[in-house]
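ugh ok so i messed up the first submission bc i forgot one of the chains. this is the corrected input, ALL of the components this time, i swear. 737 residues overall. if the numbers dont match what u have on ur side tell me asap before i send this to the collaborators (the ones from the other lab, u know who)
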Amino acid sequence: MLSIFQNLDISHYIYLSCVLFSIGLFGVLFRRNAIVLLMCIELMLNAVNLLLAAFTEYMGDPNANGQMFVFFIMVVAAAEAAVGLAIIVMVYRNTRKTDVSFLDSLKD
Amino acid sequence: MNSIALILGLPLIGFIINGVIGKQLPKIVSGLLGISTILIAFILTASKLSQFVSNESFSESLKLFTFLNVDNLVLEASFKFDRLSIWMTMIITGIGTLIHVYSMAYMWNDEGFHKFFSYLNFFVFNMLMLVLGSNFLMLFFGWEGVGLCSYLLIGFWYSRPEYGKAARKAFIMNRIGDLGLLLGMFLLIHQFGTLDYDGVIEGISQGKTSAGMLTAISMLLFVGAMGKSAQIPLYTWLPDAMAGPTPVSALIHAATMVTAGIYLIVRTQVLFEMAPFTSEFIFWIGLSTSILAALIGLKQNDIKKVLAYSTVSQLGFMFVALGCGAYTTAMFHLTTHAFFKALLFLGAGSVIHGVHHEQDIRLMGGLKSKMPITYITFLIGTLAITGFPFLSGFFSKDEILTHVFEHNKIGYGLMVFSALLTGIYMFRMFFVTFHGSYRNTHFSFDKVHESPMGMTLPLIVLAVLSLIGGALNLPEYLTHQSGILANWLKPILTIEETKHAISHSTEYILIGVAILVFVTALLFTRSKYVSNHHVPKDEESTGVQGYMENKFYVDELYNTIFVKPLEGLSDILGNFFESKVISPLSFGINSVLTKVGKLNRYIQDGNIEKYLLYMVIGVVILIGINLFI
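and heres the new structure output, hopefully the right one now
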């Protein structure tokens, strides 16, 4: 298995993460359910993670700095998801909705 | 503890205590506090005198803190006792104590009793700062402080709108003079890099500056003196200042504050010695002020107004002496004037008190039987100011006349005329008030009463001082040596005063002229107001007398030249510029901003998806800029 990934050209990783990122981005922009929104954000973060890991391997960095970054991002993403979900739960309790297009009371 | 700090600090403490909790204190405590702070300051000052007597160059200084330190300019809050400032301090605290005692009786029934004493103490503090400061900055602080107190006390009965107006007038006219003083100080800093009296004097003696610059500085300082000491053209505030309670008129507008201008010039006499043009200017300004004010005083019927014009006129005398370079003489007249003018004002206050707040002398008359102490003390004051032989005013005025005689013969003639006018207006007021028959129908003669002890006692003390005050500087022809004050001030007068170059016989003739003037004035007014029972009429006079009665229309002139155009300008600015230019402009800016704001509201409608879209667009633009530009 490992050898397959190692033999893949770097361009394939780039294409994949671009696609993942774009799916995440468009999901964030056009979906309305707050939970889906969070999932899409997660998708975008993971696209970046993938790219970081790929480039670390490609550059042959002995310290694997890029991969270290991936761990940090995962931790932050987990925290973010926890906070985000908590907010959504509270919003849902108050408004019985998770549709972000109705949540515009901040403008006042 | 340093005595300067105590002398300065006590009135300040009195001011703070009376000002903050005076209302809760019983009147007797509040009043005694006011009196005792000044009295202790007086005793402390008097105890310092001996050190000055034993040591000719004795001086004591106190440096509180550095006020400002920029580049090479160091301004310090420092004070100094020298022979001139201790002399002034003696006058201020001495007369101040008497007037405080008097005020306690005079103001007893006033609801602002504690306020009055706190202002009065604050005034004394500022006046002491003015005379004790060892540089122009401290003088300026005191100068402004006494101006403020003068404003507060003129408008003491602020519920009367015209009193408030008089207070504002005094304040504003003083500001004009203060501008001159301030500009003079700036020039001093520019020329000498210091405001210390010693530094400035040293700078002048080193010839650091040109004669023209010295003239400019001295002229500007004199403008300041003009405002404070009520000289032409800035004298019109002083008669109006009589709106204040009478003790205030006595302390501030006769004995102390208005003499600050004379003090300033004596303090900086080196400057004025080096600027002969300014001295000549001072001479003529003083002379014309003394004559003009005396002429107006002839026709006034308000007892305090007569005294106010008399004060303006006497200040003119002092400036004449300064113009001749006779600084000791000016200080001498300042001292005697402080005695007899405070006496006269307090006497007038006693009269006003006795006839139930009537100030019009036409409605008085025959008061001598009802108010014997006031009558006798007032008589002494009148005799002193008019130059009855061997009273205090006789010596000081005679000395001025002698100096003027040496300086300028025409000026001497005019001064004699002015002295004659002094005699006439003072005796006119005196006879109309105390002799003849009582004329007020609204307040019965039986109710007229002598003032209480608290008021008559200061009168008696001041009367004694007016009697013997001349002893402070007896002329040479009597004692064959120079007077006490002349010896006293000699160490601090940096320039030797010119000795009388005239012979004794000429001097005797001059004295003869002075006595003749006195007798003429006395006989003229006596025949008119006592023998013929003449009473000033109510109706308007015509011709020159009409001019005199209306104060030569100077107030009206100032109104037309300065006040009206200014009011017109503010009318234009208020009614046209404000409504037609400023308002549309600001409302226009306002409406444009509102519209822009409304447009912006459409972008920020609270929809999270749109915000996210904007963010993405922004990021794309940033990346685009990074990549392609």
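quick check: The CA atoms of residues 95 and 105 of chain A lie 12 Å apart. that seems consistent at least. Chain A has one domain: 2-107.
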